[in-house]
Every structure is written in C-alpha cells, then in structure tokens.
Write a structure and sequence with these properties.
The complex is a heterodimer of chains A (about 200) and B (about 350).
Chain A: H1 2-17, H2 20-24, H3 28-35, H4 41-63, H5 66-69, H6 73-99, H7 103-113, H8 116-127, H9 132-162, H10 173-188
Helix pairs in contact in A: 1-9, 3-9, 4-6, 4-7, 4-8, 4-9, 6-7, 6-8, 8-9, 9-10
Chain B: H1 2-18, H2 29-35, H3 39-63, H4 69-94, H5 100-105, H6 113-121, H7 128-158, E1 160-161, E2 164-165, H8 178-199, E3 215-220, E4 232-233, E5 239-243, E6 253-258, H9 267-280, H10 286-296, H11 305-310
Helix pairs in contact in B: 1-7, 3-4, 3-6, 3-7, 4-6, 6-7, 7-8
Classes of the chains: A mainly alpha (about 200), B alpha+beta (about 350).
Chain lengths: ~200, ~350
C-alpha cells in the first residue's frame, strides 16, 4: 500500500503541482509542436508517457548499482543517455519485428523517446532520492504532465488562431510564447517562489 | 564566386535569423527557457550547443545518409552525449557545475531538438560543407537567443551582469523562472516577425504558424448515393466535406478534407496524406491532383499550389534546403531514408525545396 501510495503521490505531484513541462520547460518544444498537430496528439503523448515510465523504471535500479553509485554526475548522464538509447532501439526492433510498424512510426517513436523530458526524469529521481515506486510515479507523472501541457497548449493555439484581435506582429510564435508564459506562471505559483525580491 | 557567396549568406541568414531555431522553429525551448538565467551559463551552453550541433551535422552529412532514419535518431543522442560529456565532466571537476542549472540542464543538450532537426532536415540531404554552414548558422541563432535571454534575465532578475553587482534596488526574480524566459521569447519572436514582415516578406508564410491537421480521405459512395458536386459542411463544424467525382475512374469516390482550425495550411499538408492515399488507391493520378487543386480554390483556406505541384517533381534546384516552420520534427516526412541519401543538394522530399 505504501508503494502504491508513494507512486500515486509522486505522480500527482509531478503532473499537477510541479508540472515538469510548464514549470521547468522540460519537453516544452515537443509539447508546443504536438499541440500544432492534434491528429498525432494521442499517439505521441502515449509514447512519451510510456518512455518516461520505462526510463524511470530502469535508471533508478541502475543508479543504485555499487559500480554506478559513486560515479560523478556527468558519468550518470552518460549512463542515462545509453539506457535511453538502448530502450528506444530495443522497443523499435520489437515493434518492427512483431507488429511490422513503418519506419515513419518508428521515427515518431524516436522523437517521443529521446527528448529532454524523458532524459530529465532519471536526473530528477536521483536528485530527489526517490524510491523505486516514487521514481515510477515520477515517470508516470511526467507523462501526465506532458498530456496536460500539450492539451492546454493545443486548446490555446486553436483559440488564438481564431482570434482576430491579436495584432499582426504578435500572431504565431510570439503569442504562443506569451500564452505558454501565462501557463508557466500559473504552475509556478505552486512553487511558492516570489516574483519580486 | 558571387553566387556562391550569396548562397552562403543565404544559409547563414536563414539558419540564424529567418528560421531561428528557437523563435521560429520552436525547437530547443527547454534549454533556452530553463538554462539562460545568466550570461556565463548562456555562453557556456551556446558553446557546447555549437560543438554538439557541428559534430552531429558533420557526421550526419558524411556517414548517416544511408542509415535508416529511426536509427539515426538514436545516433544523434549518442553523439550528443559524447560531445556534451567532456564539458559536463570538466564543469564538475572545476566546480562550475555548482550552478544547479548547469548541472541539471547541460546533459540535456544531448537530446536537444534543434540538433536532431537540423541533422535530419538538412545535413543528411546536403553536402558536408553546406551542412557545416547550416550548423554554424543555427548555433549562432541559438546562441544569440541564449545570450539575449541571459543578459536580460540576469540584469533584471538578479541585479547583476556577468556576476557583477549592479546595485539595482528591486529585482524581478520571477524572470529567472521559465515563465520569465517565455515572456522575453515572446517579445523577441515579435521583433523577429516584425523584421520578416517588413524586410523579408517573402518568408512571411513560411514562418507562419501552421496547424497541421488537414486530413484528406476517400470514401466510396454508397449504392444509389449521388454526389452533389458542391462543398458542404458536416454536422461537425470542424469538418468540411467536399465531394469529387472521378470522371475517368470506374468508381466514384468522395474526398473529404478536415481542417481542424482555419489558418494558413499549405498544400504540403494535404500532399502528405495524399501520398498515403495513393499507395492505397491506385486510381489517384496527376489528373486527380489537378482536379483536387481546383476544388480547394473554393475553400477559405490559403493553399500553396506551387508546393502542391512541386511534390512529384524531380529535384531540379541547386538551392540548399532549409526547413520551413514546424517541419522541425520528422513527423510529416514520409519515409525516404534509404533512397535519397546520395542526393546532396537537391530538393529530395519536396517539402522545403521552395525555401
């Protein structure tokens, strides 16, 4: 029960209070881009959530190996990158062999697997000294955070594209950045940091 | 000679300014927003980014052309990690990485989307020389954004410049949070858009935000169903249906097109789906394309007919490619990794050749 509780609490915290995409900008490029492609929204967010959980599940035990635990941070980064690349390649080969998915699908899989959000999860888990259950929750929460961020962005992009009152020079990427900044500010409010000092 | 220099300038201008990786292509936002809290950090990230991008683009252009794209994506990560590791290790050993952001975000440069986008969209389709030019141009564009962000955020957010206290009474420390970077990025993007509108209007459309949700499909008419020949709205407001009769075909089909939102949608969006449809329905032909084009003229949507026609054409231009807005990821490119690797300068996917 404790394990499940750890997992769920960390997932909820990561997804809604500490939204990694909007508060810390992890994976924000992918979130913005996917918000412009609503057709691939479901598939891509599912992929990114899956890889976030898998990378958390593998990297946390690897982190605790006696031969790895004492290594410098920079070497840990290499280990995480290797794990991520390995997970992606194995997944791609399995999907290709079993389901005969297209190379186009696999390329999208690569984008979902190899991005700042998925690579950041093992770092966060290590820095926060999360247990395995909490690490899994962190990965799950990161996936949900991505879904929340991408959904909010997609909704905003849709509305902004129809808004005729936006000045011409602000249309497109400028207003998109400003919209993200408002969402980011909203989630930053949970951090308790002061805007002025 | 003059022409070569002009082409070089073109790559630099496009890569660094017109198609700025952060402000226009919306790539590398994570690093730009989260790591650019002061000048020194921004400078270090810009240098590491340049090394990573140049090495990746060089190898992609030299060696990866015949490797399937889904494997190349992983290779970019491995090369990126190998490039970033020495810097991260050095920073750690010298104590620079005591800066939390440096410690956390420097390794993430290995998976930055700008590098993989430019390797995939430019380097693997062009010569080594042009790929390097593009890599430098993109690095300059990215570095410029990082430095501007770093300067503004450090001065206003922290009251210092390059670590020197400026004695400002009030600090807007919120600017050091990612939301502060997003605000500045918004105004920088606005300034760039103003520049493009005013001085390079030919790039207006290519740098515009496109919502790529066009869906083109085929539905066979039911027995006894008659095509009306007029565009009609579906019960769902987001769906516009258009009927089309294949006069020369043995069967009648309906083409329906879904626009998730109004906006600038180039014909390339449509063609992406058309390519798939062609594989499934051999009835599609050049004549069909022409008639579809006629149909789209009736819609309240901007269609780039030149791009539409350019797709089936053979490579014919010497102009190197630079990706248009939001072709940054690989999603809309159909798989063609194995067949165009040796075409160095050509417009081999028809998607960016019009740049």
């Amino acid at each position: 029960m404790n394990l499940f509780g750890d997992l769920m609490i960390t997932a909820l915290y990561t997804a809604f209070f500490q939204n990694l995409v909007l508060s810390f900008a992890y994976g924000s490029s992918e979130a913005v881009r996917i918000s412009l492609k609503p057709r691939t929204f479901g598939m891509f967010t599912a992929m990114i959530s899956g890889f976030a959980v898998i990378s958390a599940a593998i990297c946390r035990p690897v982190d605790r190996l006696p031969s790895v635990i004492a290594l410098p941070d920079s070497v840990h980064a290499l280990v995480y990158a290797a794990v991520l690349a390995g997970v992606y390649i194995v997944t791609a080969i399995l999907l290709k062999a079993i389901f005969r998915v297209s190379d186009h699908f696999l390329t999208n899989l690569g984008i979902a697997a190899l991005n700042t959000l998925v690579l950041a999860i093992p770092f966060i888990n290590r820095r926060s000294a999360y247990s395995l259950a909490a690490s899994l929750g962190s990965g799950l929460g990161a996936g949900v955070a991505f879904v929340v961020a991408a959904a909010l962005l997609a909704s905003g992009v849709h509305r902004m594209s129809e808004n005729k009152e936006i000045p011409q020079v602000f249309k497109g990427t400028p207003v998109m950045f400003l919209y993200i900044s408002l969402l980011s500010l909203g989630f930053a409010a949970f951090s308790g940091n002061s805007v002025f000092s | 000679m003059a022409q070569s220099r002009s082409a070089k300038d073109n790559i630099m201008l496009k890569g660094a300014v017109i198609f700025n990786p952060v402000l226009i292509q919306l790539a590398g936002i994570c690093i730009a927003a989260a790591a650019s809290t002061d000048v020194l950090t921004s400078l270090i990230f810009s240098i590491v980014f340049m090394v990573d991008t140049v090495v990746c683009c060089f190898l992609a252009s030299l060696l990866f052309k015949r490797i399937p794209r889904w494997i190349r994506v992983a290779l970019y990560l491995i090369i990126g990690a190998a490039c970033v590791f020495p810097f991260a290790y050095f920073a750690e050993k010298t104590g620079i990485s005591l800066n939390t952001r440096m410690q956390m975000y420097l390794p993430l440069l290995a998976v930055n989307s700008v590098t993989s986008v430019h390797c995939e969209q430019f380097a693997v389709k062009n010569s080594v020389g042009k790929s390097l030019e593009d890599a430098f141009a993109v690095s300059i564009g990215f570095g410029a954004v990082m430095l501007i962000l770093g300067i503004i955020r450090e001065i206003i957010g922290n009251g210092t410049f390059a670590g020197l206290e400026l004695g400002l009474g009030v600090h807007l420390s919120g600017l050091l949070m990612p939301f502060g970077a997003f605000v500045i990025l918004g105004y920088l993007a606005m300034a760039l858009k103003w520049y493009i509108n005013k001085y390079r209007p030919e790039f207006n459309e290519k740098t515009a935000v496109k919502i790529k949700s066009t869906k083109v499909g085929l539905r066979k008419y039911e027995d006894g169903e008659e095509p009306s020949g007029e565009p009609r709205r579906s019960p769902d407001d987001n769906l516009t249906e258009m009927e089309f009769l294949f006069g020369n075909e043995p069967e009648e089909f309906e083409i329906f097109t879904e626009f998730w939102s109004p906006g600038v949608i180039t014909a390339q969006d449509i063609v992406t789906d058309m390519e798939t449809l062609r594989e499934e329905h051999e009835q599609f032909s050049v004549e069909t394309d022409r008639r579809i084009e006629e149909l789209f003229t009736n819609m309240d949507t901007t269609i780039d007919f030149e791009a539409f026609e350019a797709v089936p054409a053979e490579p014919e231009t010497e102009e190197p490619q630079t990706e248009s807005f939001f072709d940054g990821d690989f999603e809309d490119d159909e798989d063609e990794e194995s067949d165009d690797g040796d075409e160095t300068d050509g417009d081999d996917d028809g998607e960016e050749g019009d740049d």
